[in-house]
Amino acid sequence: MGTSDFIASIALAVSALGLFVSIFSVLYAKRQSQSAHIDAQNSYRAQLTEAHRYYYQKVLDVEEKHAGELRDLMSLASDALSQVVVLADSYDREDASHPYMRHLLHEASEMIFVAFKGQMGWQTGLNLLHRAQAFKRFEVDHDLAKSADISTDFRNATRFEYFKDRDKWQEQDLLINGNFHRLVHLFSRRLKTEFATEFSGKVDKIIYPVQKKHAGIREAMLQSSEELERLLREGEMAHFPLHESPQIFNRLSHRRATLNTISYFTVHSDNANTDTLKYLYICFVLHAFSEFSSWGWEHRDLR
After folding, report:
1. How many helices (H) and strands (E) does the chain have?
2. For helices 3-89 and 277-290, angle between their N-to-C axes, nearest 10 degrees
3. Lowest mean pLDDT segment, chosen from 72-76, 151-155, 282-286
4. 3-state DSSP: the chain helix, strand, coil percent, rounded to 5?
5. What are the phi and psi torsion angles at 94 (to 5°)?
6. Cβ 46 vs Cβ 242: under 8 Å
7. 263, 225 in Cβ contact below 8 A?
């Protein structure tokens, strides 16, 4: 190898080394940048966790405060619902006719609950109450009742529609749901109205424990809802807005809404009202109370 070739080889080696050093420097700088970004993210998360720990503990305290009372209410409502729908069988004009009266009342009232269930996780109690009470004035469309499609899975269809438009008043779908009209029509036609006072009196006795329990806890529920509403406003004005911790924000919002709604909903029988539709509303509220822990289609995402 001549001197010129040796010098060329050295130059090539130096160039290759320089290229290697350059590539290494770029990769090192990139890794350092990524590391700094991760450190910044971890620091931000740590600051969020610390800043929002207070709100998380507050919602846990509220849930623990009312847990026992709500379990009792749910249990009482579930028992009362079972008793009311079974009692309806004893006042059937068409004894032992299928579908049984208990199935008609249970399914129709459950459909109302399912229609409201999604918004029960975030809507205000007064809004839901006003809309639900409209079913006390529901009018059966006999043509729809005759053309009912009983194969449709209303629960899954309603849940699917909710996630397409959570603001939609889904109970309005019941106004054009043939199966719902059929259930209400059969129940209203077959209930022995000549025994209306007797039936109403027995329903009153069944739901009294639920009424008593609810009356005893509703004010505390409303106060806790108002406390959580104040915390939500406070949290959104903080240096780190509460919605930047979505799980905590959603859980607090959900509990505020559900406690507000359950404080406004009441279950009672009006003996002066002989309309059979009042039992539809009563059983709807019993459904709602008994399934309080499932309010809101997104409730599983809060755990």
Report:
1. 9, 0
2. 140
3. 151-155
4. 80, 0, 20
5. -110, 80
6. no
7. yes
Could you give the C-alpha distances from 79 to 214, 216, 269, in angstroms and in order?
A: 15, 19, 17
Q: Which of 294, 230, 222 shows the shortest CA–CA distance to 262? A: 222
User: Quick check: bond before 99 cis, omega within 30?
Assistant: yes
Q: What is the pLDDT of residue 18?
A: 59
pLDDT of 24 strictly over 60: no
Backbone torsions φ then ψ of 100, nearest 5 degrees: -65, 155
Nearest to 129 by CA among 279, 255, 254, 285: 285
Residue 29 to residue 16: CA distance in whole angstroms: 20
CA diameter of the chain: 123
Alpha carbons 285 and 113: distance in angstroms, whole number: 8
Greater confidence, 52 or 118?
A: 118
pLDDT per residue over 62-77, tens digit each? 999 999 999 999 999 9
Q: What is the mean pLDDT of residues 171-199?
A: 89
Distance between CA atoms of residues 75 and 70, nearest Å: 8
Query: Tens of pLDDT along 73-91?
Result: 999 999 999 999 999 999 9
Nearest-angstrom CA–CA distance, 240 and 228: 18
